[in-house]
Copper radical oxidase
Amino acid sequence: MILSPRISVAVLLLGSSTVLASSAGSFTQAGNTLVSALLMFLGNEDTVYIIDKAEGNAAAVAGHPAWGSKWDIASQQAEVMDIRSNTFCSSGMHLPNGSFINLGGNDGITINGAPGSTKNTDGTGTGFWDAVYQDFDGRKSIRILNPCRSGDDFTSPQCKWFDDSSVLAMKAPRWYAALEPLGDGTIVILGGFTAGGYVNREFPVRDPITQNTQAQSTYEYYPAKDADPQLVQFLVDAGGLNAYAHMFLMPSGNIFVQANRSSMIWDHTTNTQTPLPDMPNGVVRVYPASGGAAMLPLTPANNYNPTIIFCGGSTMADDDYGSYSGPRVETWKIPASNDCQRITPEPQDGSAPVYVADDNMLETRTMGQFIILPDGTLLMINGGLNGTAGYFNITTDPFIKETPFGVSLASGPVFTPAIYNPNAPAGSRWSNKGLSPSPIPRLYHSSAILLPDASVLVAGSNPNPDVNLTTVFPTEYRAEIFFPPYFSASVRPVPTGIPKTLSYGGNPFDITIPSTSYSGSSNDAADNTTVVVIRGGFTTHGMNMGQRFLQLNNTYTVNKGGSITLHVSQMPPIPNIFQPGPAFLYVTIHGIPSNGSYVIVGSGNIEKQPTSPVGALPASVRLDSATGGVHPGQNGTSNLDGGSGGDAKKSHNLGFIIGAIVVGIAIVAVIGVLFAVWRRRASACLAPSKAYPLSPTAGAGWTSHKGESGIFVPLAQGKYNDTSDPWASSANLNAPYMDDNRASSIGSRSQVFGEYEKYSGHPGQTHAVPKSHSGY
């Protein structure tokens, strides 16, 4: 067996943080996600978790099509996971102990999105369960996952999704709900649909509050409080354009909320709202217009005061959005917006909050997504030039006359990402210089997430009601990794001494940076070093729910020999600024990040977080004679350990390299054979998607469940694709260096972190429908 030189080199580099300049600004393929990545989150240093809607994926689990998987960062291989209920257009968030919840979704469905075979008993015609897909109604579901690590037994109940609405459920059914954590770790759950649709209203509107019971303009909490869900008038006033409202917790404990063209400061404790100015220029940012939104980095320089940026979306007229049944115009012909606006909802100078125009994006974009990078810039990725999110029902929508893009309501995929620098002078904040395009269109139901090595995993795209591999914009399973420009550096920091937990206030801690982590003046490197904490969030629909970036305060001591000791403050003693839960800590030098280290912020419990006064930092100590790089007496091999430059590789003699290649090839070959055998034995696989034939009848991009459901069979059009094997996987030549010895997450941490954690290790739930059920 002969491996290609690329794979042979990959064997040598696996586990290192060697930065390859050729990869900077480019995409590489990263395997197959098995289910389309409608939702995605980074569970820990090892694993990304992926959630699809219930649909006819060829990958199977427990005798039905899978709609969940986990993607291993090191191997770039995915394995299916069982989820019991329909997760279509659900929401997700972290919990303080590092667990994650996934809330809501749609009802139980069958092929092409039609209602499941067993109906709910409320007379709505919605599905309770389906005999083919074996998915239960997910609209009230609360699913909990405790992420496991690579050494854990993933067949253990502790590593599986808990999903049983007879045990744990929301008080109201919700589809497209917005989530935001509070300073104590509680999750606010806002709005949503009760069944499905394009926008959350009838047309014309006859019942603005409940839209004939189809709108859920209320809020509740997780864990649940005693009170029933309360009406939020802001959502009613938003007139149906209120799905996946943008929510950001403010330092005061109030929440900034944006929907349609409206904004408010919301005191959820009393359900009172303070109106803010409307979004300028008539741009809608929420679904289905789907503009990008993010909180800009929180830093000592801005006193940790949040500023929110919005970019893209749509300026379509309000009536053009139509109703649950679909838009009233051919959306794919309408350019999206390139407009960007900033707002600081709680100005610290006492002034009134206002929107401030920012630089326009380089192109129009709907469904674009912001990823905050460790250097403090924001990556804008995915999306389309025209139209909106969603897909439509060709046979029942009188406003749709032609279908050049299958059932997609968007066109013109934006293949090239762009980077926004919030600190650059106005007029120069956007750039795509040196960034290569992806060959894969990423439109509706795409996702992206920051990885521990500071690259970005990009996956998904499925503007179809069920699996469709032949349409213009097909169901997409290929994953890619995007390497931001800082991967052009030949050296990256390798800090040591990073704690496992961060507190709100308290004594500072020290991080050591070896001299091999940088080159040049040590004083200069220390002056340009930052310590940042990033939470990548739970990504879906161009949003990263819970995403935040916070720079910790620090001073430094430059040591003889060029190492640098960073004296680092704990988190600011205001939990509302950065809520408790999992995050990654990065050290950057001149904008070049280390690999992220997994940390838990706060106590790990849903509770009022303990706070302490901010510990004093010592004064910085400089040493003019100190420099970085490989010094006499050092072995010069730190580059393969995530340290310094290319000269390190030259110290390895040819015999060592050849020997390593031979050993590596043998190991990979053996592992490959064993893995293939295991996969064949362990995973059941349905027949290809042709086992779930595409119906030539009505197709809905949402499911209103009033008798029409299915999928439109497109004309014979070429799909946007490259010529490579769509299932191909390539080794990650920039695999992150890990300097910790991570033990099993099952045995090393308590399984009881509060009331929500009692479901850890709960026995698996069956997919069989009970003989009788109450439904909704």
Remarks:
- Residues 359 and 426 are 6 Å apart (CA to CA).
- The longest helix spans residues 654-682.
